[in-house]
Each structure stands twice: as structure tokens, then as C-alpha cells.
Amino acid sequence: MRWGLRAKEVVGIVALTFVVVTSATLVHLAQLTRVVVENAAQQAELIAKQIYAQTGQSEPARSERRLLAVPHLRADRRRRRTGDPA
Question: CA–CA separation, 83 vs 86, rounded Å?
Fold first, then answer.
């Protein structure tokens, strides 16, 4: 079967269109993947910073509870809060 010039042109244009669309799609998917990964990394960093900040805030409260378990320190804290001189 012999292909005419018109059929060869059509096949060539279809193949070229397929290559261009496929290439553009692959570039878009690569950029989209990069953006998604960067966004996930930023969110992970934010969560890590939040956890670190919350850990720093909870530690003094825990040590303060330990200090309040000592009776004379508890009385001293009450005096400071009310403004009574020692």
C-alpha cells in the first residue's frame, strides 16, 4: 500500500502535535510535582517550628509545678503575688 503525500503530511502533523502536547504535559507535571514537594516541605518545617515552640513553652510550666511542690517556695510565690514583704 502506497501512501500519498497528503496522508504522509497528516501523519507527520499528528505525530508532531502528539510530541508537542506530550512534552508540554510532562514539563507541567514536573513543575507541579516540584511545587507540591516544596509546599509539603514548607508545611513540615512550620509544624516542626510549632512543635519546638510549644515544647519550649510547656517545659517552664512543668518545672514550675515541681517548684511549687516545695512548701517554702509555694509560700514565697504567694507573697510575691500579693505584694507582701518577706
Answer: 9
pLDDT band at 54 (very low <50, low <70, confident <90, very high): confident
Q: Do the beta carbons of residue 75 and residue 81 sit within 8 Å?
A: no
CA dihedral defined by 20, 26, 28, 32, rounded to 10 degrees?
Answer: 180
Q: Which residues have a Cβ under 8 Å from the Cβ of 68 and sit 6 or more positions away?
A: 74, 77
Most confident range, picked from 11-15, 73-77, 82-86: 11-15
Buried residues in 66-85 as b, exposed as e (16+ CB within 10 A): eeeeeeeeeeeeeeeeeeee
